[in-house]
Each structure stands twice: as C-alpha cells, then as structure tokens.
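Below is a filled-in request sheet from our internal design queue. Each sheet records the structural input a requester submitted and the sequence that came back. We keep these sheets so that new team members can see what a complete request looks like end to end.

REQUESTER: design group, bay 2
PRIORITY: normal
MODE: inverse folding
CHAIN LENGTH: 198
BACKBONE (tokenized):
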C-alpha cells in the first residue's frame, strides 16, 4: 500500500485479524444506525442527536470495524481543545461475543492504529484515554504502547470526585483501592497517554 495521505475511507491492511476480512475505516451514513446501537450496547448511551453531533464534529474520527456489512467494533474521539497537539480517544469497543469469533483477533488494535493514523494526519502528536476499570482493558492499552499518568475517582453519575498523579501501575492499583474507599467512588479509572509517531 502506498504512503498517500489518509483519506478517511481507505481500509487498512488486515494482517492482525488472522484471516478475518475486517475493514477499519471512517463511518459512512449507511452504518449510522448499527454503529449507534453498538455504541449504546458497549460504550455510551448517548441520545441519537449527540451521536450525530459527534460524527458531524469529526467525521473522520468516528471509525467502524466491519465484517462484511456488519459493525463489529467502533472507535471514536476528538482533537483536544485544551491541549494543542493532543487527541482524546473517547470510546473503543469490539464485539467480544465468543460465538461470533471476533474476540482476541486484533480488531481493537486495528481500530486503534487506524484512529492513531487519522489523528496524526490532523496534527496530533499524543493521545490520551480514560480506561474502563477492567484489568483486561488496561492490558489492552499497555500492549498498545500507552503508559499510566493518573487515576480519576468517579461517582455514580460519572462526575469526577478526585484526580491523582500515578505513573507506576502497581503502586497505582493500591492507590486505587484507597481512592475508592475514601471518596465512595463508583469507579476509579486510569488515564493513559501515548506519544504518536515514535
């Protein structure tokens, strides 16, 4: 494949997906409904209008993974308005239903790599993400070159209760338990960061 500028519609090679014919690319209008339902099931329960607004703001930063015409993953984010040169990964999920055979096939990594290329093309040099409070999700970010920078305690309504610098994962896991107890937090998530293009 040539080194042409990313157009937002060209699927990237599928070498990581072990023979599955998976495309990772920017969403197109025919996929909106299925991607919205997928997003609501696995990630954010946004109203339809908020989903459409997210796509309108950054149409090339809302990605889908497709097996044929079926949406099997989504990934979306934005350029940071507060930190020049930074992008934020706001959501990424893959259909992990074992009966369908998409679990552990590199689809999430593929979506992430496609997203990284898209934000690089827009001038981003770094990427940040808040991880779900799940060791498997945290391992995914480590595997893909992210490092921890802080912990955020969140309440039942996802409001931020506390934010603490934490760059050592093992020490942070102990700190997480203390934050959860001290603030009666619903969850304590890691914030991970990654420099792009290294």
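RETURNED SEQUENCE:
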């Amino acid at each position: 494949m040539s080194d042409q500028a990313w157009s937002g519609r060209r699927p990237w090679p599928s070498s990581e997906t072990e023979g599955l014919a998976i495309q990772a690319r920017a969403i197109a209008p025919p996929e909106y409904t299925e991607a919205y339902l997928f997003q609501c099931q696995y990630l954010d329960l946004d109203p339809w209008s908020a989903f459409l607004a997210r796509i309108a703001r950054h149409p090339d930063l809302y990605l889908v993974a497709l097996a044929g015409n079926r949406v099997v993953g989504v990934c979306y984010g934005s350029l940071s308005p507060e930190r020049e040169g930074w992008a934020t990964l706001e959501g990424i999920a893959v259909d992990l239903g074992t009966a369908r055979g998409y679990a552990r096939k590199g689809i999430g990594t593929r979506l992430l790599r496609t997203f990284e290329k898209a934000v690089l093309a827009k001038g981003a040099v770094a990427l940040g993400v808040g991880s779900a409070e799940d060791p498997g999700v945290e391992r995914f970010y480590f595997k893909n070159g992210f490092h921890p920078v802080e912990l955020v305690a969140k309440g039942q309504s996802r409001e931020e209760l506390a934010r603490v610098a934490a760059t050592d994962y093992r020490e942070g896991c102990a700190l997480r338990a203390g934050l959860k107890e001290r603030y009666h937090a619903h969850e304590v998530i890691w914030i991970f960061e990654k420099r792009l293009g290294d």
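SHEET NOTES:
- DSSP finds five helices and eight strands in the chain.
- Residues 132-198 form one domain.
FILED BY: M.R.
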